[in-house]
Write a structure and sequence with these properties.
The complex is a heterodimer.
Chain A (H helix, E strand, L loop, with lengths): L1 H21 L11 H10 L25 E4 L7 E9 L5 E8 L8 E8 L4 E2 L3 E4 L1 H8 L5 E9 L5 E8 L7 E8 L10 E3 L9 E3 L4 E2 L5 E8 L3 E9 L2 E7 L6 E8 L5 E7 L8 E7 L7 E9 L6 E4 L4 E6 L8 E8 L6 E8 L11 E7 L6 E7 L3 E7 L1 H22 L2
Antiparallel strand pairs in A: 1-26, 2-3, 3-4, 4-5, 4-6, 7-8, 8-9, 9-10, 11-13, 12-13, 13-14, 14-15, 16-17, 17-18, 18-19, 20-21, 21-22, 22-23, 24-25, 25-26
Chain B lengths: L1 H27 L6 H16 L10 H9 L4 H9 L10 H18 L15 H16 L3 H15 L9 H4 L2 H28 L4
Helix pairs in contact in B: 1-2, 1-3, 4-7, 5-9, 6-7
Classes of the chains: A mainly beta, B mainly alpha.
Chain lengths: 419, 206
């Protein structure tokens, strides 16, 4: 008799389970921003193809017509700062997030934030968004340290911050948590934990900006960094992971950044983490169904010394990356540009370069993060020797100027080859 | 909703920690602890684990344990909690073998061995749900009704989003259950082997 009752109860669970699966939203296409729409149209034009490198022998553009604005994120007084990220606010300001403390991974590390006023070109005083004790109180579990913060804009307009928390071990023991703000980052709600791994939820981290789907959900490029080192694409409904897909496998690719080609196609570029005998180039994966499945697509021939990449697509379809284009060290940081989806990457600006210095005097320039405020300009932040965060603003004039320089060689060659 | 969910998780962890403490006490004491005493111990220890003790601790004890172990699966919780009830039927070895075999295949793939990620099936795969239900029916057919109840409750908890995870795997398996199942399976095989060897010695032809 008890067996019959138990089996009836099991049938009830089957019905509830089926209803739960049935209520899951279908996998939607990527939401197309102006930048992606332009890039998609340009990709169809054959005359866009160019293969002539503008810069040779590592020389960079001399942008005399326009200048980039250099700035620093406000000093928190902490000995070590790292992993800055940015988001555009509704009033046109830029809010930055970064972590600071006595050293990376220390218990005193907090996540800071400050706002950049484009009118005055000044940063506000830093505030603390999250510290270790607030995180563990809100999450009701022990937290040993905090890590990378990544902001995003939710479909309903609220600001959301994903950040890394570690309860045991090093970064391999990481999980992702999230907080939401109703007032553009002035105050934040209770943190919530994203569950992404079956092994005590260990080892999922975030570094790159999320992508919106057309149904309002978010696609968050994340990565696993423990036994394997590979990319994962999390599908997020407010503060819960409702699906995830593997972007690569093995032990050689983390911190994916995603370039969306159209509503279905996208490419992910990774930081390589290969052994010393292997090729030090940027691994790539591609999707043709809005991230539902990914295929490893080989490397693009740009050196990468196991360091993070930043990526951005502007409204005119131009693609930008900031990265260390060397095989070892992080002493050289450059900006590269490509026309649409052509992957004809060329260095357009050397941002930092300590190559001339002896090894022991070279500084670290790393963890770049790119956004655009109006679709034509560029805000960049990166770690400067772990002591400061550099903020660089490239106006639309600068971008136009560099873009026109990119086009020049082709125009000249076209004229020369005409009969 | 978040606070409610966090409190529930801490209560679960407090009960689990208390039951493990009672189990350890039972191992150290020669006689069997009466059921009533066990319940009293559970109430006492559960409160110690659940409420913040102050001093230099920022969290209740259960919060520290939860930071390391995460939330246990519903199957683990119910198997552990049911051990408090006296004269319960032992978990069938077939259940342990099956969980152990699934764990051996599941964890390496879920942790990056190849492009196939079985963990992703737990978010909305009707196939995985059917497999869990069939497993529960088999438990019922071999007479282990408790297994049917446990698996049914795991599926209902997943449907109702009882824990932070939206993944069915997190409700039916966890590394501690996998370790227990593998250890139990190997111990069973070792014991069988030893009994066979001993019986062979006793009845060997002279």
């Amino acid at each position: 008799m008890t067996r019959v009752i138990a089996l009836c109860f099991l049938m009830l669970s089957a019905v509830l389970g089926y209803l739960h699966i049935d209520s899951q939203p279908a996998w939607a296409p990527f939401k197309l921003t102006d930048a992606v729409k332009t890039a998609s149209i340009e990709a169809l034009s054959p005359e866009i193809t160019r293969t002539i490198p503008l810069y040779k022998n590592g020389s960079s553009v001399k942008s005399s017509a326009t200048q980039a604005q250099l700035n620093w994120l406000p000093d928190t007084g902490a000995a070590s700062v790292h992993a800055a990220s940015l988001i555009v606010l509704k009033d046109g300001g830029i809010r930055a997030f970064w972590f600071s403390g006595s050293r990376e991974g220390a218990k005193d590390v907090v996540i800071n934030s400050a706002v950049f006023d484009p009118q005055t070109a000044k940063w506000s005083a830093p505030t603390v968004v999250m510290d270790r004790v607030s995180a563990e109180t809100g999450l009701s579990r022990y937290i040993a340290k905090l890590g990378n913060p990544v902001p995003t804009r939710m479909a309903d307009g609220r600001l959301q911050l994903f950040f890394v928390t570690v309860s045991i071990g090093g970064w391999a023991g990481s999980s992702i948590s999230t907080i939401i703000s109703d007032d553009e980052g002035l105050t934040w709600g209770q943190p919530k934990r994203l569950i992404t791994s079956p092994l005590i939820n260990l080892s999922t981290l975030v570094k790159s900006p999320a992508l919106p789907f057309s149904d309002g959900l978010l696609g968050l490029p994340a990565y696993h960094e423990w036994i394997g080192r590979f990319g994962e694409f999390l599908r997020i409904d407010v503060d819960q992971v409702i699906d995830k897909r593997r972007m690569s496998y093995g032990r050689d690719a983390i911190q994916p950044v995603v370039f969306v080609d159209d509503a279905q196609q996208a490419s992910a570029f990774f930081r390589q983490t290969r052994g010393s005998a292997q090729v030090k180039q940027i691994p790539v994966s591609q999707t043709s169904n809005a991230g539902k499945s990914w295929q490893v697509a080989g490397d693009i021939p740009i050196p990468n010394p196991n360091s993070a990449i930043a990526a951005l697509t502007l409204n005119n379809g131009l693609r930008l990356m900031v990265l260390n284009n060397i095989e070892t060290g992080r002493y050289r940081l450059v900006m590269m540009m490509s026309e649409g989806q052509m992957n004809d990457w060329q260095v357009v600006q050397v941002l930092e370069d300590d190559e001339a210095l002896p090894n022991e005097q070279r500084r670290e320039f790393s963890y770049p993060y790119l956004i655009t405020a109006d679709g034509s300009d560029v805000h960049l932040v990166y770690t400067w020797d772990r002591k400061k965060i550099r903020h660089v603003y490239f106006g639309s004039d600068w971008v136009e100027h560099v873009h026109s320089q990119l086009k020049t060689p082709e125009k000249i060659i076209s004229k020369e080859t005409q009969p | 909703m978040n606070n409610y969910m966090q409190s529930i998780a801490l209560i679960e962890m407090s009960i689990s920690c208390s039951i493990i403490c009672i189990w350890l006490m039972q191992k150290l004491i020669p006689g069997e602890i009466p059921f009533g005493v066990r319940v009293l111990l559970l109430l006492m220890l559960g409160n110690i684990f659940f409420w913040p003790l102050g001093m230099s601790m920022e969290l209740p004890l259960a919060g520290y344990v939860r930071g390391i172990t995460g939330d246990l699966s519903i199957v683990s919780l119910l198997l552990l909690w049911s051990s408090l009830i006296p004269k319960g039927k032992a978990t069938p070895i077939g259940f342990k073998f099956t969980i152990g075999l699934i764990a051996i295949g599941f964890y390496p793939m879920a942790l990056g061995l190849g492009m196939i990620d079985p963990y992703a099936w737990g978010y909305g795969s009707i196939g995985l749900l059917i497999v869990v239900l069939i497993f529960a029916v088999i438990c019922g057919l071999i007479g282990w009704t408790k297994g049917v109840w446990i698996l049914a409750l795991a599926v209902i908890s997943w449907s109702g989003h009882w824990h932070e995870s939206r993944n069915l795997w997190d409700y039916v398996i966890d590394p501690f259950l996998a370790f227990w199942a593998l250890f139990g399976s190997f111990y069973y095989l070792y014991r069988q082997h030893r009994e066979k060897a001993q019986s062979g010695y006793l009845f060997r032809a002279g």
